[in-house]
Amino acid sequence: MDDKIFSCTDCKSRTCYLEADGDRPVFCLTEKLDEDFVQDTVDAYSDQASIDGRIARTAAEVEGEYYGKLTRVEETVLLVKRLGVNKVGIASCLGLANEAAAFAEVLEVNGIDYIGVTCKVGSQDKIRMGLDEDKKVRPGRFEGMCNPMLQAKVFNKERTDFNIIIGLCAGHDSIFARHSDAPVTTLIVKDRVLAHNPVACLYGMDFYYNRLKKPLKD
Known about the structure:
The chain has helices spanning 29-32, 35-46, 51-66, 72-83, 97-109, 148-158, 172-179, 200-203, and strands at 87-92, 113-118, 162-166, 184-188. Strands 2-1-3-4 form a four-stranded parallel sheet, with helices on both faces. α7 (172-179) links the parallel β3 (162-166) and β4 (184-188). It has two domains: 16-70, no CATH class; 85-218, NAD(P)-binding Rossmann-like Domain (Rossmann fold, 3-Layer(aba) Sandwich), CATH 3.40.50. It is an alpha/beta fold and 218 residues long. Helices cover 37% and strands 10% of the residues.
């Protein structure tokens, strides 16, 4: 790959966290970025009225106070509480309805209002979006399509302040985030094979999952 563009995934020094001016590789993005380009983001984060700033500072505070002490569920709830969110939207996969219900219980215990919308909301057959019948999981029978755009539209109508993804399919989560008026975070990434722990295969790339080092067959 002679035309490869090197970036942060190729870096071994990773000094950007500990040093303002560390020993960095020649391809370091930090060294190449225009100063004004970087400053624009810093200005946004330091703006007391900016939603980006409020989220960035609050997330950093939670990290600083509870690094390695709280679960992702607890971190998410604490972030929501400190942001002063009035209503949370739970965008869940139907296959993780139990997990969504359990998380809703945690929100309720913490006095946080919420509305949950599953991916099958609207109950429309997949063929209505132009999918061939033989591409269904179970061809020849009704199969409700995932409708992340509709999930987002329901939340927009309900005026949620913050939306949380629980297990939406890869790609469907992208559609949801594109159409959500409120900020979005992900609590659970669905992986039916690895019990919703998608990085497990990355840890096993040198043995159990060495097939990942070869191109996937489409």
